[in-house]
């Protein structure tokens, strides 16, 4: 097994995750099998209890692992199916060691950070690296490891010590360190400054790790004299210094690395030149180029509570991008804070209320993503009502589906106080209830998590057609509440169809309004399994319904333009051109998404 470690220096947010994913993709293009590990130095056991404002979205894996959003980047870039063990945290390591101590595994020894914590880290890496995650048998050729945080952080020190020991243990030719650092340009003088990177490398070397490759983030390509200076003071060959300068979208990053021969430097360090081929990125290059030529736009109103931080909905954004480019449309996301649609906002700040409604009414489609808590719920209900009554394409995910059910109960069935027991425990019309197997005392890992099977009870529905007329689909879940099964007959009598259910038939998974052009709600999270080359079927349906032209939904819901290439895990799949995500925009957009100014971050 060969290992590539990606670290970051100077500041956070430089794009270590994108760099690690791009390195993995480049190595895959060279014919190598790749797996990935993300190390997060925080004490939380996992990301499940973190606020999206604190840490961005919680990405959910097939096995129910609630992990850092960077694992979503790995899965999308590399088309892998990772496990919860591919995300290492300080909390997991300490819990593992303390459990061993309680069992008496250390035979009465004093348990210390060195060697017990550091040994546990190394053992975890070696064990997980051997697990295949690409659907093939046997271990991968290369494991790409990303160390979260910034070099010099106190919380990272046990991991840096462990990785220093690990690099010595596996020996030369089996370990390559890529250090991502910042080379800022001061506007006053316009000169690229190397000192921050010099200091970062000095700290890294002082902690026992020596970089083999420097990946320097900057606004423009590094000048030759700057490279020479970095090579001299950081003890890294000039040919091993690459620039990750600002590009229109992050799909250019693997191409930047290839053009600067980063793969040759990595393969040389890992002694893999004899078995690797020249990287084949022809399809990737074509997709990257075409994504920049899209002109016909599709506007999606994203109605949520975390609109100030788009990373909270990162996978939803990516799934929208995958689908929009498959339908040859340039995605424009209008961020609508759900609370701004409510009557109370109309009284307090009427301009904000009007602006929110103008965005909603100007959109081609409406998407209500998942979430927790009662803030903004009334605004989401109003958005669902607007989409239902005005025949605007609508997709509700998790809470978004529950919102659609509540709105239907209030507006169509006349249940004025219809609600979820999450928001009103005393409601007389509990449309959404707490799941019996859930825990109300422990938060972490107690939801219905991971891949679950949904069976289509109505075969002639839009969702089933989009998935390719399969009998069932496997999608990822993350929820504590469900639609009340005792009220289903009332809903269906009034026209709301529950077309997808679990194996028992009592847990509702997919809703549709048959008479509506596209009104779909799902209890699961289809965005987590969307890939650039295999967009989520339901996101494809939303975008196609928004732009009824050459990618409309005739023939009982089938897309015309995207060419099907079979099914994958029950998914309808296409081979579209990919859209990008951005390090930094050079044309007013970020991540290849045009927005209404609230910001979209890679």
Structural account:
The chain is of the alpha/beta class. 34% of the residues lie in helices and 21% in strands. The chain has 20 helices and 26 strands. A ten-stranded mixed β-sheet has the order 19-18-21-22-23-15-14-12-13-26, sandwiched between helices. It has a seven-stranded parallel β-sheet with strand order 5-2-6-1-7-10-11, with helices on both faces. Strands 16-17-20 form a three-stranded mixed β-sheet, covered by helices on one side. Helix 1 crosses helix 9, helix 5 crosses helix 6 and helix 15 (377-389) packs across helix 16 (399-411). The chain is globular and about 75 Å long.
What keywords describe this structure?
20 helices; disordered C terminus; ten-stranded mixed sheet; 602 residues
Summarize the structure in short:
The protein has 602 residues and is an alpha/beta fold. The protein is built from 20 helices and 26 strands.
Q: Return Rg in Å.
A: 25 Å
- pLDDT averaged residue by residue: 87
Computed structural class? alpha/beta
Q: How many β-strand stretches?
A: 26
Poorly predicted regions are 549-590, 597-602
Largest beta sheet: strand ordering: 19-18-21-22-23-15-14-12-13-26
Shape: globular
Count of individual helical segments: 20
Report helical residue fraction.
25-40%
Q: Tell me the β content.
A: 15-25%
Report the biggest beta sheet as strand number plus sense, adding barrel if it closes: 10 strands, mixed
